[in-house]
Design a protein that fits this description.
Blueprint: H1 3-12, E1 14-18, E2 23-25, E3 33-39, E4 41-47, E5 53-60, E6 63-65, H2 68-73, E7 80-83, E8 87-93, H3 94-103, H4 107-131, H5 134-144, H6 146-151, H7 154-160, H8 165-176
Antiparallel strand pairs: 1-8, 2-7, 3-6, 3-8, 4-5, 4-7
Helix pairs in contact: 1-3, 7-8
Length: 177
């Protein structure tokens, strides 16, 4: 990162900490920040019409996380953000993002790349939910992100994988034999 962009980050990003199980952004409210996880785990989830929570993403450091479309369009979020563990975060206000984009040299390019990656991840997850079995999805998660199993409650992992906790428990029991 060049010096101009570093200085903008120092000027506009603020550091803070959130305790475990903090509901940080709520579905239906307009998000105010783009967040960068320095340490810890957060989940992005939606609540359906029955009141059931559906985990859409589980994020850990180092990673940007926000309700991106709602943040950029300044519209109510269709999902909530909640800490799973204690988290250390850097965040930037939505209005300050515009200043950093305008003054920064590489920040705009990085943000475009970030959005492209998010779209690719969503497409990949959709394909995996449609083409892989529940056990294959779990094995893939274990291979790619083993730290999730150690830090994230089973109900969130099951929801992320598109199954009930009982189904994931059966899969784990079968695999442990």
């Amino acid at each position: 990162m060049n010096e101009v962009d570093k200085e903008l980050c120092y000027q506009y990003f603020e550091y803070f900490e959130l305790p475990k199980n903090t509901l940080y952004e709520r579905q239906g409210e307009i998000p105010q920040y783009q967040n960068y996880i320095l340490s810890g785990f957060m989940r992005k989830f939606s609540t359906d019409i029955n009141g059931d929570e559906i985990t859409l993403e589980i994020n850990s450091e180092p990673r940007f996380v926000a309700s991106y479309m709602s943040l950029m369009e300044r519209k109510p979020a269709t999902e909530s953000l909640q800490t799973i563990t204690d988290c250390k975060i850097l965040r930037i206000r939505r209005d300050d993002m515009d200043i950093v984009f305008e003054k920064g040299i590489s920040v705009k390019q990085y943000t475009i790349q970030l959005f492209q990656n998010i779209i690719e991840e969503k497409n990949k997850k959709t394909i995996e939910l449609a083409t892989l079995t529940a056990e294959e999805r779990y094995l893939k998660l274990l291979k790619e992100t083993p730290q999730l199993v150690q830090n994230v409650p089973i109900q969130h992992i099951a929801s992320l994988l598109g199954m009930k906790p009982e189904s994931l428990s059966r899969i784990r029991k079968r695999l442990n034999k």
